[in-house]
């Protein structure tokens, strides 16, 4: 609490009482803490690849690794770490644009099942690499108004996660369902699942159930935060169900006519 006190005096200057104002600043403090945490997280996330880039570049420069295979190996690491950095910066910029509402939705008529098929096609190679099959199905008509690019991004993030967090040979199902005034998209996998404690936190920026695993698979920890914002910007909602060891299912519900 912030406390302000003001004495109340009468016309003769005699003290009559005191007004005390208690200002609840819990929320302000929480926001301030969240901002500080975010800056600390961003700094940490940027530092890791930069340190690694610097280290490998310096080692190459000092010339002690004349061997071609080692040189190539280092260059590959440098390339990979630069891509990570680039991806992280792009995600941060995207998140910042969304959070400051400095982006416009480009709403137009679309067929959701078509958009879904396109995205699945785009990610097929990634799934094939892990021998994961993606099943696509559609219930009813999924004609709606929406921002195609944003819906694609949401689907890319969710289906990529489904592939990343599912074992070799697993299965991912993407289903679009027509409702009265809405359409739903379900992205379901039979992967590693998310424990009950972590589940409410996965939409937070930089929250990861398993930091090392997410990093190794190229995750920035911002994907679901972006997804949630993009879905809400289109007046939709996102729900998640998960059982550890069995799999996870995300359901996005979007209005057919957002305006
Ligand atoms: P990341 O870049 O780490 O994947 P996200 O914001 O996309 O970041 O996801 C946050 C965390 O939620 C992930 O690190 C992972 O632990 C968990 N997660 C997301 N999707 C799934 C899924 N389909 N199955 C299991 N865990 C998931």
UniProtKB/TrEMBL annotation:
<feature type="domain" description="Histidine kinase">
    <location>
        <begin position="41"/>
        <end position="258"/>
    </location>
</feature>
<protein>
    <recommendedName>
        <fullName>histidine kinase</fullName>
    </recommendedName>
</protein>
<feature type="domain" description="PAC">
    <location>
        <begin position="1"/>
        <end position="37"/>
    </location>
</feature>
């Amino acid at each position: 609490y912030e406390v302000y006190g003001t004495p109340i005096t009468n016309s003769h200057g005699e003290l009559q009482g005191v007004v005390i104002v208690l200002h609840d600043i819990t929320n302000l403090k929480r926001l301030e803490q969240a901002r500080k945490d975010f800056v600390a997280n961003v700094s940490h996330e940027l530092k890791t690849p930069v340190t690694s880039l610097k280290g490998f570049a310096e080692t190459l420069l000092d010339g002690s690794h004349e061997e071609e295979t080692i040189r190539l190996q280092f260059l590959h690491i440098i390339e990979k770490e630069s891509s990570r950095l680039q991806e992280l910066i792009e995600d941060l910029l995207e998140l910042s644009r969304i959070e400051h509402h400095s982006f416009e939705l480009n709403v137009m008529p679309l067929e959701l099942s078509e958009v879904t098929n396109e995205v699945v096609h785009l990610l097929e190679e990634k799934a094939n690499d892990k021998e994961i099959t993606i099943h696509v199905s559609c219930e009813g008509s999924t004609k709606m108004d929406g921002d195609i690019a944003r819906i694609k991004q949401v689907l890319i993030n969710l289906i990529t996660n489904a592939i990343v967090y599912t074992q070799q040979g697993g299965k991912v199902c993407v289903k679009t369902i027509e409702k009265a005034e809405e359409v739903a998209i379900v992205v379901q996998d039979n992967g590693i699942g998310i424990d009950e404690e972590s589940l409410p936190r996965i939409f937070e920026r930089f929250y990861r159930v398993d930091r090392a695993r997410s990093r190794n698979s190229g995750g920035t920890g911002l994907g679901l935060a972006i997804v949630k914002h993009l879905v809400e910007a289109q007046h939709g909602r996102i729900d998640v169900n998960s059982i550890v060891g069995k799999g996870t299912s995300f359901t996005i519900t979007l209005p057919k006519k957002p305006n």
